Amino acid sequence: MANPNPQHAPKTEDQAAQPQAPGMSEDAAGYHEDPLAIGDARIAELEAERDAMRDRVMRALADAENSRKRAEKDRRDGMMYGGAKLSRDMLPVYDSLTRAMEAATQDTRQAAPGLVEGVELTLRELANILEKHGVERINPEPGDMFDPHLHQAMFEAPVPNFTAGQIIQVMTVGFRLHEQLLRPAQVGVSSSPAK
Fold this sequence. Notes:
Blueprint: H1 13-17, H2 39-81, H3 84-103, H4 106-111, H5 113-132, E1 135-138, E2 151-157, E3 167-172, E4 174-177, E5 180-183, E6 185-190
Parallel strand pairs: 2-6
Antiparallel strand pairs: 1-4, 3-6, 4-5
Helix pairs in contact: 3-5
């Protein structure tokens, strides 16, 4: 009859002759490894796994922080520059009202003072609203130096009493929203002085 528990079966001559593996306890030779013998290798493996997990966690935290900063910047930019398209679309209205005021002669002012005053008040109110929302005018004066970041040269001409690069005429004023240029001021620029 066979022994129901093979672990407690007597060793055969072949089993007794087999050398015991290093790190194995004598009573469990061939069945269980000694935990102390594999400890250093297992510790190194666990440390490598821990380091890999720490690296992944640190990268995930850095990505989350970068996403938070990017979202905060997008939110600030949205608040600051969100009205840029509307502001840019309002600039032709400003230009039209300005031209209407410039075209109003003394006769027009006497013939229709209410109309001229209404256009003037509308222009002033539009300018106040634009300024309230951070839109500022770029209105160079003749004699100022040309700045390619703020001005657009529409023509160049040699003009006496002006040095090269000075503004000689302002055709339309420019506008910027905080630091973002909505429209450059359109200007004429002096080339070399006339002789």
